[in-house]
Amino acid sequence: MIELLNYEFIQNALIAGILVSIASGIIGSLIVVNRMVFLAGGIAHTSYGGIGLAVYLGIPIFLGASLFSVLAALLIAYITINQKDRLDTFIGLIWAVGMAIGIILIDLTPGYNVDLMSYLFGSILAVSNEDLYFMSALTAFIIFIITLFYRDILAVSYDSEYAKLRGISVKFFYTLILILSALTVVIAIKVVGLILVIALLTIPIYIAEKLSNSLYSMMFLSAIISSFFTLIGLFISYKLDISSGASIIIVCAISLIFFLFLKKSI
After folding, report:
1. CA-to-CA distance for 228 and 18, rounded, in angstroms?
2. CB 244 within 8 Å of CB 127
3. Distance from the CA of 77 to the CA of which of 5, 31, 166, 262 falls in 20 to 30 A?
4. How many domains does the chain have?
5. Shortest CA distance to 245 belongs to which of 257, 254, 234?
């Protein structure tokens, strides 16, 4: 295992895995606590439109996906606040249209043969230095925002009525959580892909939730557990020459089954 660290692509993969694990541990906790898993799934699949836009315009993939995902998050926030009775219909529509836009734009890009699998199921071993800079910046931004507004986000997440009485803008922080979820999805696409990203945002968090007694400890523990799963999955994918994203998620799933069995036995 030690000799693998001599390769730059392995070093980049390890760093990317840890960065994504930190972001997904923090934001995944908020997604689970606020019951936003379905919404995050919609954002994840809609982000494919941003990938297609980036390819078509010739701009960095992360930049296109980020802008598109944030716009999708704002739209979903507006819909969920004002049209709750038709939530599932609108999310399904945004989900499908986003992916359709991405596919069409990629098809219209002359002379470009994109590897769809790398975006759908992840390609952590192909992470570049530029990707790491972007991941680092987004992860740092997420940590900064959560640290700055932690008390308000905590209040909104657990008791929105109490938060309103305190004068906290529930709508603003609800939208902010969705935006941060969109950014987390974007940086996780390179690691596990947009199809599997929801598993990374929920499985480690579920385990951490059962072992925590506060939102802060849940975030911290989620990041550690997610990092462990990601690194193990990365090692397995390299040794067996299989998809890194799928390998990481299988590690998460097996660990969850083992955790539930152990918890039930105790």
Report:
1. 9
2. no
3. 166
4. 1
5. 234
| pLDDT, average across residues 139-146 | 94
Tokens of 243: 């998809």
CA-CA distance, 23 to 20, in Å (whole number)?
Answer: 5
Question: What number of residues does the chain have?
Answer: 266
Q: Is the pLDDT of residue 36 over 70?
A: yes
* pTM of structure: 0.88
Domain membership of residue 58 as a residue range: 2-265
Residue type, 193: G
Q: CA dist 73 to 78, 106, 175, 179, Å?
A: 9, 22, 7, 5
* CA triple 6-8-14, angle to 5 deg: 90
Q: What is the pLDDT of residues 221-261, one digit of tens each?
A: 999 999 999 989 988 888 888 888 889 899 999 999 999 99
The whole-angstrom separation of Cα 28 and Cα 206 is 9
For residues 190 and 139, what is the distance between their CA atoms, to the nearest angstrom? Answer: 14
Q: The domain that contains 139 carries what CATH number?
A: 1.10.3470.10
Please name the residue that has the structure tokens 């911290």: 220
Q: Cβ of 219: how many Cβ atoms within 10 Å?
A: 24
Residue found by looking up tokens 């960065």 in the block: 19
Q: Note the pLDDT of residue 85.
A: 64
| Burial of 29 (C-beta count, 10 Å sphere; 0-12/13-18/19+) | buried
Q: What confidence score (pLDDT) does residue 58 get?
A: 84
